[in-house]
Amino acid sequence: MSAGINSYKTDLREIFFTLFEQFGFEGVAGQAPFEAWGPEEAKAVLQETYRFAKEVLGPLNSTGDREGCRIENGTVITPKGFKDAWQKLYEAGFKTVGVSPEHGGQGSPMMLQVAVEEMLCGSNAAFNMYPGLSYGAAELIGECGTPEQQKKFVEKCLNGTWGGTMCLTEPHAGSDVGAAKTTARRNGDGTYSIRGTKIFISAGDHDLAENIIHLVLARVDGAPAGTKGLSLFIVPKLRVGADGSSGESNDVSLGSIEHKMGINGSATCVLNFGENDKCLGELVGGVEHIGMSQMFKMMNGARIAVGIQGLGLASAAYFNALDYAKERKQGGHFTKWKDPSSPRVPIIEHPDVRRMLLEMKAHVEGIRALIIKLAMHTDKAKQLSGRDDDQAAYHRGQVEVLTPLVKAYSSDQAFRLCAQAIQVYGGAGFCKDYPVEQYCRDSKIFSIYEGTNHIQAMDLVGRKLGQAGGAHFQQFMGDVGGFIEANREHKTFGTEVKVLAGAQEGLMSSAMVLLGWSQDPSKVSLIPLSANRFLQMMSEVAVGWLLLEAAVLAEKKMEALSASDPDRAFYEGKKWSALWYARNVLPTVEQSARLLVTEDASPMQIPDAAFAAPV
């Protein structure tokens, strides 16, 4: 793959199916607050996004990776082409598709927004970090800031004039955010003097925007220890004047940029605030000590965004591997493998390559369905709020329980599937001549940032299972159960639906086991030991359910088509994605349930010295 050549590809037909056929975009669009949107408008946006992804962002993916970022005169210089792409991105309006019209956006349903984001992330994950963080910062200020703060900061962060970040992590603390030492000293004019160091700040500095608005967690003098004592501050890189213009330095200095395994075109920074005691911040919303609850509004959106990143790269890796497998000829057909004179065949004809490709296809389609399902719940909650509060609460509850699944399962699978794409290529995939090795490197960070995947698992078992008295989880299980009862005797998928039923029973029994452990002090360590397993089990039940749901729908659609209709092959693909996943993944949920009840605590029982004694 030569520098500057696009490698990104996706299947718009598959995205259209998930959005319009499986999850009924028309049932959300056309109604307040999405009355300006319909299927044709959404399709036009997706087609134009795909063009932009291939023509603008895709060609910068490998070049940005190889060039990386550098520091000149205390400022990050991004890879060649990034600044032009930034301007084109905002001129075209791709980052404001889902933004409220009151902030200059187009007000689309989230269902469309996540599909747009999949293509932007999949074509260039490193570049999309910059506008992604800006969007998150603007969204938080728009929800939590004072009217004055919203007026001053939101629209400029959304239209690309300014960038944005979230600054949580500190060198000594890592994921232990409550150990933060950054301080905020009250000034007489309502501002605060900020002092401290933050690390691993994505898009922490760059040359794409005229200013960068940092959202910084800090502890006001006299505040209690831990997360309860943290407040959230708006800290611009350059001070913002009364007229909204960017002015002098705000004593925010760039310490360094990290040299990373992947997303090298994204500047991951060490930032020092107040080295000269001249860094000023303003309190988000004007209220102290609620910084973590405010930041979680951005974090939850960021966690969904990470799931979309995972999907984008896994999908891109799959389609590249698929094309390579169709073109690369190697070895004879497996029925004639002992015949040295048999002609070479494309490797897609080899059974193990077909197995890997179908595994990738099933996971990519299932994860996409899971993400758009979450977005649908978000849209419906927004529509029903104030009109049918019980239904709105149901949809909000499903967003709560699905968020850790989307973040963790998508990001875990992305790295694994990108590695599998390399395996399809063989030795060629390990080389930079092809894009899949970069996809693999870029995707590893997804399971680490925005809360490691173990944090997602603990959030699921420690908070989400018991939310609303357990109602959200029970409603999720009820939705799965409703599909099972309606399709248990399905002529094509009945056997696989029964496998889903067994997996659902294993998940429910495991939830009860976790509840029992939480009430027994002698077994409490088993919860963090088993949380990751439980999250994966629940994710597999969700994905298996949605793949089978899609397959049932696809079969109905196929019955109405002529034998020569090109859509028949597409719908046939939906059938085999579901069958493969139900036969090869869903049975492991019951096995995981059996493992969970063995109460293996060996990681806690092994003495530290028994791990190893290196010399």
Automatic annotation (TrEMBL):
The keyword Oxidoreductase applies. Residues 40-160 form the Acyl-CoA dehydrogenase/oxidase N-terminal domain. InterPro entries: Acyl-CoA_dh-like_C_dom, Acyl-CoA_DH_CS, Acyl-CoA_Oxase/DH_mid-dom, Acyl-CoA_Oxase/DH_mid-dom_sf, AcylCo_DH-like_C, AcylCo_DH/oxidase_C, AcylCoA_DH/ox_N, AcylCoA_DH/ox_N_sf. Residues 291-460 form the Acyl-CoA dehydrogenase/oxidase C-terminal domain. Keywords: FAD, Flavoprotein, Oxidoreductase. Residues 476-607 form the Acetyl-CoA dehydrogenase-like C-terminal domain. Residues 166-273 form the Acyl-CoA oxidase/dehydrogenase middle domain. It comes from the Bacteria. Its cofactor is FAD. PANTHER family: ACYL-COA DEHYDROGENASE (PTHR42803), BROAD-SPECIFICITY LINEAR ACYL-COA DEHYDROGENASE FADE5 (PTHR42803:SF1). Belongs to the acyl-CoA dehydrogenase family. This is Acyl-CoA dehydrogenase.
